[in-house]
Fold:
Amino acid sequence: MSKHYEPDASGLAEVARSPKMQAAMVGIATAAAAGGRAISPVDSGEYRDSFRVVPTTNTAGWKREKRAAARIENVAPHAAAVERRNKILSKLASIIESG
Structure:
């Protein structure tokens, strides 16, 4: 017996915007931010302690629909300099993308 799958585009879009999906994205970003703290260089500890997770949305797919997302940022004044040297956020992006 074969089964045929027909995606429900509106249903999938609803799932992609749902509070549960938003919570999942925040959970993944929170775990990644913890990883960022673990691999951060520590002088004063300000950079390590300045990771934040921000719930947001992004636009994706061929219909350019809004989807749940989360952003990891570091708000330390010297975060850009640390990132240029150590590529912490870049490393986190690679880890998240690889699953």
